[in-house]
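Narrative progress, year one. The postdoctoral researcher (J.K.) led the effort to move from monomer predictions toward full complexes, under supervision of the PI. The following entry was the first complex the group processed end to end, covering 867 residues in total.
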Amino acid sequence: MATTRYLRSVLLLLLPTLLLVTIINFVLVRMAPGDPAVLIAGPDATLAQVEQIRESLGLNGSIIDQLLAYFGKLIVGDFGYSYTFKQPVMDILLPKMGNTLLLSGIAFIFSLVVGVGLGILSATRPGGIADRIGVATSVIIYAMPSFLIGVLAIMIFAVYWRWFPTEGMFSLGMKWGKEGAFGDLVRHIVLPAATLALPNIALFARMTRSSMLEVIKQDYIVLARSKGLNERAVYIRHGFRNALMSVVTLIGLAVSNLLMGSAIVETVFSWPGMGKLMYDAVTLRDYNILLGGFIVFSLVQLLSSLITDIVYTRLDPRVRY
Amino acid sequence: MTKFEISRRQLLGMLGAATVLPLVGSLPVQAAIPGTLVIATPYSAKSLFPAVDQSSAGKAMFVNIFEGLVRFDVGYNVIPGMAESWERSADGLTVTFKLAQNIKWHDGTPFTAADVVWHFERIVLGRESRAKTIFNKAGFVGVTAKDDYTVEFIATDVPWDMSWFVTLPYASTILPKHLLENVSEEDLQTHEFNTAPIGTGPWKVSEFQAGELLILDANADYYRGAPQMDQLILRTIAQPQSAMLAYEAGEVDALHEWYANIGLASQIERIKALPDTEVIEYTYYNLVRLIFNYREEAVAKYPWLTDVRVRRAFAHAIDKDTLIERAFGGAPIPRADGLFTKTNVANYNDQVAVYEYDVEKSKALFEEAGITADANGVRLTLPMPYTSGETPDTLIQVLAQMLAQVGVIIQAEPLESGAYSSKYWLSPTGWGDIPLTVFSLTPGAMPEGISNIYHSDFTPDKGGRNASFYKNEEVDALLDGALVEADAEKQIEMYKKVQAILMDEVVAVPLYQSYLAQVWNTRIGHDEAVSRPTHFFTPFYQVWEK
């Protein structure tokens, strides 16, 4: 069991870690070549206009001054203003984060259930036909770029067969709260979620399979069988639980991808999410959006590592902090 | 272990399904939403506020929301907009506009002369811009409201050119005085007008999701008559592939400015073959060119930049047809031979000097200019930054190969788009100290576009696009003269002369223009102005369901 002392020390470390992450990112984005004032001022701006915009962006002070100014606002929960979107940063980040979480969350759950399930199935009959097909297809799918999977999915399921819409999160004119919104969302989420899930299914299946195969060779499995337990109990109750450790590691890593989303899949499906937003923010050098995104991302990353650590202790009593 | 077996029946079933599938796929292209025109556009507008955002993306969207005093017809003639009529004094120095009296802002407030006066004083002339430079050249004295519906513009030096009220920055999108008069210049950037603007145009903003979607409702009180459709939705789809698929599935009714550059040549034929589809192909008003830099810093490092023989040598070294073919894999990209785009406007000069592909001539010119080849045949080794977002990598590679044939070694430096834009393209220091680059510029359909790129007054630090800092007094004089020339024929001659000089001097080497298409579902009728490709975005006003 994770001791409360461990938990307390981790939580205490959270704040300084976030601080350090913010400072590093703050400096890093400003080191990238490119001048946000010039980009925001646009093609018809005079030198004077560019300078004026640089002044309002607060880029004229020293980096320390800028950092302090940023923290000054951050403490009261003000993430600043996005000069490319002409709105406060959180007004843009939060909805997009929600959209990405939704998409990635569904994709993740789907890939977990299907991937792990397929992995277990493969492991029960290693070398069997299901296993061989599974291994081959998972390699192929994992190697395919998500752009290709996405466009193929749209062409086959949305254009050819009209089962699903080709893009977006809602039909035009539809939004949360309107009648039929849920069904509309479900129809829109299927293809992008499947596209996102496919490589992960392959990954989870392979990982689970090899983990299981290793575990099956262990002595306690022989004991379980000799006790007379049926195959299902052997595999699930004993085999799978022990194989879970490596799978949980993978899950912990996959969670961090959830929030950032996949810029590629979001672009192909025009899903209004974080991936695409961060990519645009980089191109437009929108420091405030970038920092806002990094801070939230780091926070989630830290928390998920913590949760993974806790889960380890539940799964394996030998792990103690 | 079971063996993998399929019975004959199962096999036949699978084959049967496989043959049926293709038939299911060819459903007709359906209507998106009745009463609504859904258009997919590649433009991602972050703001709808003309005073703050003058990017193409912004313009593509807010042209539906705002209006000007006058506008262009399909022949680029100035016709009435919110001004029903106007009178020029005999010397052309005074213009009096009579405004239509039934115009209302989208919030119901009446539109009056006070709005026009405020807009020109505060927005058009209240900041440094090309508009201010040109108004100053005219000797602008003032704009006054003679009564609620009469506005007078007075100049002292140069007669008014009516097209200025359409083409100059901010001039064609009049903003509401009653909502913005107390907003400071800085506060404009953060004002809610960015996402919820009020204009006098045919469409009102219903919902705006920055960068994604703009839903517009018909303005029932529009002074020229409410639009015939209830709603206009502009959906941003960045990828041309995704846009085409959305159209095919019937989710959008039209594709606005569908790009077919790299790798999409085959898709053009596919779109044309779709049922109920009208495709309008056109050449965009941009010019991709090999640009020479004339800034002092660049000339100091590369003195040959000022030698016309060397620039001509470059021109002769490039086989444009092969370049286009190899870079774009068969897409119908039009080749460019002049430094002004061919439009319906009469001042295009198609008799300018053309430099045919001739490797020997190129080498001879280099020799003549004293740029000799060393033992390895290398004459020059030059850095060439570019951005692969704008200019395809294959184009640069093919170009580098062609120039290598005459002994010019190009060290291509691909830069990420933000870096390239802020260091070069949008920078007040223009191209800095590099000798060459490849980039697309849009001189546009109107002569003032050419001034913006080649007149020495319009360098980037002054809000212009002359990033090469090119200075030719004869060209300057011709452009200034043409600006004030009252005789239309003489004016045309002057612009043609400018184009001739530019190509004589090979100020830059024109390469190609972009190919664009508009794709319309045939259930939507539209007038020519709507679908006519123009450098100045046209509102989707005259559209209807057949």
